[in-house]
Design a protein that fits this description.
Elements: H1 9-16, H2 22-30, H3 35-38, H4 48-51, H5 54-57, H6 65-71, E1 80-83, H7 89-96, E2 102-106, H8 109-118, E3 125-129, E4 143-149, H9 157-166, E5 171-182, H10 189-202, E6 219-226, E7 229-236
Parallel strand pairs: 1-2, 1-4, 2-3, 4-5
Antiparallel strand pairs: 5-7, 6-7
Helix pairs in contact: 1-10
The structure holds S-adenosylmethionine (SAM).
C-alpha cells in the first residue's frame, strides 16, 4: 500500500514494477529481487539484465506473433536487426516470415542464450552479446529493418542520439527503424512520486523516458497504432 505522504523505497519499486503480475512480483521480492537496487548496486533498469538469472529471465518470455503480423505490412523485405533482442521471439517470428539475414544485439547473456537457442536452426541468424553503447555498427551492412521493441528508454538521451546516428553506418538508403511501443498517456502522479523517491534516495532510474526528437538525428518519422499505443517508423531524410 502506497503511503499518502511518504513513499518508502520498496513502495516506490512496487509502483515502478507494477507491470509484473502481483503474485509473481511478490515471489520475486521474496527471492530478493529488490536487494541489489536497495543496496545501490543497480542504478538503472537496464542493469537489472546484467544480474538476472534464467528463472527470472524466463518470466519475460513472450509470443510476438501478433505484433509481427501487425507490423509486417510496413516491413521492408530482406534483413532485420533487433536492438535489445532479449529472448529472441520477435526475431524468430521475423525469420519465419522470410526475413534474412537476422541480427540481434543484447547486453544480457542470459537473455541472449535463449535467443541463440530459439534461432539455433537458422543459418542466417547472428547474435551479438554487447552493450549497444559499445557496438560497432560498421561491422554490419545492408540492414533493411531495425526493431527496438520494449527497449527505448533503457539508454539515456545521449546514447539514444548516438545510436540513431551510428546505426546509419549499416542501413540501406530506404531502411526503416521501428520503435515501440509508445503511449501518449501522461505519467501518473503516483509513478512520478515513485521515480523521484528512487532518484533521491537510491540514485536509481528505471527508465530514461522515450526520446523522440528524431528530426535532430535527420530521420523522418510517422506513427502507426498498435492497440492503444503507437509504434514510430523512422526513415532517413533524403
Ligand atoms: C524489456 S527487455 C525487452 C526484450 C525484447 N526486446 C522484447 O521485447 O521481448 C529489454 C532488453 O534490452 C536489453 N538491453 C538493455 N539495455 C541494453 C543495452 N544498453 N545494450 C544492449 N542491450 C540492452 C536487456 O538485456 C533486455 O534483454
Amino acid at each position: 500500500m502506497v503511503g499518502f505522504f511518504i513513499m518508502t523505497n520498496e513502495e516506490a519499486l512496487d509502483v515502478v514494477f507494477n507491470f509484473i503480475h502481483p503474485s509473481i512480483l511478490e515471489q520475486l521480492k521474496a527471492e530478493g529481487a529488490y536487494t541489489d537496487i536497495l543496496s545501490g548496486k543497480i542504478k538503472t533498469g537496464a542493469e537489472v539484465y546484467d544480474y538476472i538469472d534464467e528463472q527470472h529471465a524466463s518470466l519475460q518470455d513472450a509470443d510476438y506473433t501478433s505484433l509481427v503480423n501487425t507490423l509486417k505490412a510496413d516491413f521492408n523485405a530482406g534483413s532485420l536487426l533487433q536492438i535489445g533482442c532479449g529472448r529472441g521471439d520477435f526475431l524468430l517470428r521475423c525469420a519465419n516470415i522470410g526475413h534474412s539475414p537476422i541480427y540481434g544485439i543484447d547486453r544480457s547473456s542470459v537473455m541472449l542464450d535463449e535467443a541463440k537457442y530459439k534461432l539455433r536452426n537458422n543459418q542466417n541468424a547472428n547474435l551479438y552479446l554487447e552493450k549497444i553503447e559499445n557496438f560497432d555498427f560498421s561491422k554490419l551492412n545492408e540492414i533493411n529493418n531495425v526493431i527496438l521493441n520494449n527497449f527505448w528508454g533503457m539508454v539515456d538521451e545521449k546514447s539514444s542520439i548516438d545510436l540513431l546516428n551510428n546505426i546509419k553506418k549499416c542501413l540501406t538508403p530506404d531502411a526503416k527503424i521501428f520503435i515501440g511501443t509508445y503511449s501518449d498517456n501522461a505519467i501518473s502522479p503516483q509513478r512520478q512520486k515513485a521515480d523521484i523517491t528512487l532518484k533521491n534516495n537510491l540514485n536509481f532510474l528505471f527508465s530514461f523516458g522515450f526520446f523522440k526528437d528524431f528530426d535532430q538525428c535527420r530521420y523522418d518519422s510517422k506513427t502507426i497504432d498498435i492497440g492503444n499505443e503507437k509504434y514510430f517508423i523512422l526513415t532517413l531524410k533524403p
